[in-house]
Design brief:
Distance between the termini: 59 Å
Radius of gyration: 21 Å
Mean pLDDT: 84
Helix content: 25-40%
Strand content: under 5%
Number of strands: 2
Shape: elongated
Strand order of the largest sheet: 1-2
């Protein structure tokens, strides 16, 4: 079972804490310097000046949308049984 590393963070986390939770300690510096600026252009949560950190619930929500989780699964659900053998081939044009 996969654990949720964001769940162990405080409500407002530093970029370093978020980076370690998302990509691990070895790649955290790269994530902070290269990835976060790119993600911010796509709506990654800003640092809250009062709490001096990014709101972790919004970081989670961002990633849910980034991976398409919030779009729901109904759009990708199968629409019925495939019957490839019943296809008649080309349609006749008039």
């Amino acid at each position: 079972m996969m654990t949720d590393p964001l769940a162990s963070l405080p409500m407002f986390a530093t970029d370093k804490q978020i980076a370690i939770a998302v990509v691990g300690k070895e790649r955290a510096d790269y994530y902070i310097n290269a990835v976060i600026p790119q993600l911010m252009r796509k709506g990654f949560p800003q640092i809250d000046p009062l709490h001096d950190g990014r709101p972790v619930p919004l970081v989670r929500k961002f990633y849910d949308g980034y991976f398409g989780i919030t779009a729901g699964f109904a759009a990708t659900a199968p629409d019925g049984e495939e019957r490839l053998g019943q296809w008649a081939g080309r349609r006749k044009r008039s």
